[in-house]
Amino acid sequence: QVQLVESGGGLVQAGGSLTLSCAASGSTATINTWGWYRAAPGEQRDLVATITPGGATKYEDSAKGRFTISRDSAKSTLYLQMNSLKPEDTDVYYCRARREIVGVQQYWGQGTQVTVSS
After folding, report:
1. What is the rounded end-to-end Cα distance, in angstroms, of the chain?
2. Sequence-ordered list of residues with C-beta below 8 angstroms from that of 118, at least 6 positions apart, any chain
3. Burial class of 103 by CB neighbour count within 10 A (0 to 12, 13 to 18, 19+)
């Protein structure tokens, strides 16, 4: 099992910045991919960015050049630095851990609200 707790969301003006954090605990050593996703209430969660333990990253197009995903393995914490925020970035942001050893297991945090005002 892996437990994930997000923090760092809030209200920010357009053009501002936020850094989201996701503290992980449990069996994190076997996680293959860490990621950030976003969703409006009741909607499907969409990819924002992912990172592997080796540091390979992938970004959704609207996040490229504005957001940076990183992970501090010593602190077992995942980050999403968000710059140049736009009102359309408003959503609940979720942290996800994915393990692919025998089948696939996915773990999600509870989400943190990001609201960008115009």
Report:
1. 40
2. 14, 87
3. exposed
Residue-averaged pLDDT of the chain: 96
* CA trace torsion 61, 64, 68, 69 (10° rounding): 30
Identify the band that residue 68 occupies on the pLDDT scale cut at 50, 70 and 90: very high
Tell me which residue of 78, 57, 54, 55 sits closest to 3, measured CA to CA: 78
What is the per-residue DSSP string for the chain? -EEEEEE--EEEETT--EEEEEEEEES-TT--EEEEEEE-TTSPPEEEEEE-TT--EEE-GGGTTTEEEEEETTTTEEEEEE-S--GGG-EEEEEEEEEEESEEEEEE---EEEEEE-
pLDDT at residue 101 in the model: 86
Structural tokens at position 23: 């503290």
Q: Count of alpha carbons within 13 Å of 80, Cβ hemisphere only?
A: 33
pLDDT digits (tens, 9 = 90+) for 40-49: 988 999 999 9
